[in-house]
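FORM 7B: Structural annotation worksheet

SECTION A. Query
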Amino acid sequence: MATSDDIRRLALALPEAVEADHHGMPSFRVRGKIFSTIHLAQPRMMVKLDPEDQRNLAEAHPGVVEPVPGYWGRKGSTFVWYEKAEEALIVMLLTMAHAGIAPKRGPYKKRAAA
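SECTION B. Predicted structure
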């Protein structure tokens, strides 16, 4: 069973990840772009996923992974009930969300040999 402290530790372990406030919630960003938030009133987090990945993961993990209702959910914003999730799933989701917004140059993508 994961906690909000686990989410914070895992998110901040990703390259260039920083924590900042987002409407009273902790958010995790790379170069100003949010890849995850922690909701404090409920044991859930949000990760930004590719919509196809979101659909597949929600089907594979019912009751744990679900689209955010409305517009943002259609764009890939995904709720994760982290108290029900294994740490390996949380790591995978954070890594996917981070990769989706991280710059494609520098430490994120190897350059082709010249």
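SECTION C. Observations
The chain has four helices and six strands. Residues 53 and 80 are 13 Å apart (CA to CA).

SECTION D. Sign-off
Analyst initials: ____
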